[in-house]
What we know:
Layout: H1 197-238, H2 261-268, E1 272-279, E2 282-290, E3 296-299, H3 301-304, E4 312-316, E5 322-331, E6 336-341, E7 363-368, E8 376-391, E9 402-409, E10 421-423, E11 429-437, E12 443-444, E13 456-460, H4 461-474, E14 479-481, E15 495-496, H5 513-517, E16 524-528, E17 531-532, H6 536-544, E18 551-558, E19 561-568, E20 570-572
Antiparallel strand pairs: 1-2, 1-4, 2-3, 3-6, 4-5, 5-6, 7-8, 7-10, 8-9, 9-13, 10-11, 11-12, 11-13, 14-20, 15-16, 16-17, 16-18, 18-19
Amino acid sequence: MPAPAAEPTPASETAPVPAQSAPPGPQDTVHAPGTEAPASGLTGGAPAPASGLTGSAPAPASASASGTDATAVASASGLTGGAPAPGADTPAPTIAPGAGAPAQAPAPAADTHAHPQPLHDPDPYSTPPYGEPGPWAPAPPVQHPAATPAHGVAVGAPPAAPEAGLAAPAAPAAGPWARYDPWAVPAAVAPLQQADPVEEDVKRRRGRRRRALIGGALVIALVSGVAGGVVGVQLERNGGIGAVELPQAGVEAPDRDPGSVAGIAAQALPSVVTLHVSGSGTAGTGTGFVLDDRGHILTNDHVVEPAGKNGEITVTFHSGDTAEATVVGRDSGYDLAVVRVKGVRGLTPLPLGNSDNVQVGDPVVAIGAPFDLAGTVTSGIISARERPITAGGEKGDGSDVSYVDALQTDAPINPGNSGGPLLDGKGRVVGINSAIRSADGGLDPEGGQSGSIGLGFAIPINQGKRVAEELIGTGKATHPVIGITLDMEYDGDGARVAAEGSDGGPPVTTGGPGAKAGIRAGDVITKVDGRPVHSGEELIVKTRAHRPGDRLELTLERNGVERTVSLVLGSSDGD
């Protein structure tokens, strides 16, 4: 086992070195370590002979038959020395000079199976010495035991080669300290290395490979998403990747149900015309429809008014053919006029209906040229009947004011529709489109430029038919009259008879229908045929809805007393 460090000795002495040898044989002399050798000159830690020459290393000892043998041979010069034999733990005692033959070296009694005792108790966790954690903690410096050499004697001679026939040294026994040598060179002298560099490089390569795989997966996902989006858009828009071919119905017959809007329009459009009027520095566009095969066309008076006496009127048919037209007759009180085209054959007149048969809610179709868009068809219903309206009045003297007991419709009517037909569900004319209520609250035959707001008005065809017949026959239209002058400034309910006539004469015409019925100045007429009237304009509208010679029943108030009178309408060529 390892021995403690030796104390320094004088130059004439040899430091005792413990030795481990084989068990003694029959001819071996065994001495305990540290005892003096016999007089034969063998020394084992005792003072050297007087010659002063001693061996610096133990000589090989002669082993017994049960162990390894080694013989210490002295040189001829008497100087002995040598390195420990291979496999020996400690040097053997030296041989004094002058000995005749090699002497048996004393060997201490020792257990060949014993192992060196460590400086401290074994560590079950194989912790490096002195308790420092980890393989990087260097062991503290350890003093190696070594013999103090004599003066002039070299130490650490190379070990002698084992003699032939000698067995190889035994391998160190296994044990908890087999891997630990306290006398070895400290690990600190070796260059430091990073722990597990191969494992770290593998981790780095794996990390780079993992990042590359993740990046590649992201790129693939992005490209796949874009491609999928493109394909999805194509599928959504076109229904496929190839050429787009949409389903479509085949060719059908153009005929429609005669009672449908399309059927009514198909029958009526060839008989509807567009009028372009110019003269006296003004121009306008309107609509008309054919009354007969002789070329008579009915329209509004305000449509042909710009032509005057020397203006021009051009009629454009649905086929695109055009013809010049002349005014046959016009009446501003009814806002109706008749023009005629010459040299045109094959005209188809529109059938006329009966406006008295029209009911609120009946479907209607309007045809015209709004804003000079010829052949425009719109549809709606009858919104109201006998709607009293007045239009015109630009002249200021009332000579151009129109009084109409109109049909109200929500069929879109715009400037340019004036004079066009309003057709019932069977394609018959029940009204002549004349005016619209504009967005600013005004009522204009042309409707201004605001467009339709769903309030259109048409002259009933019963009234239009009578006026058209009179205009074609005589060039003038007759107006039914009561023979009284009304106070148009009266703001009470009803129509009040004025105190005097418009020309300075009596307010009730002498010998007229009103005088015969007993009407007096100041009387307030409140009803016509049992229907209330609220103003003078409304009384005129109700009166002109009849023909001359029709009988009317009027309800009036005089001095707070209500009475009823009956009269027969007269005729007048003026307003």
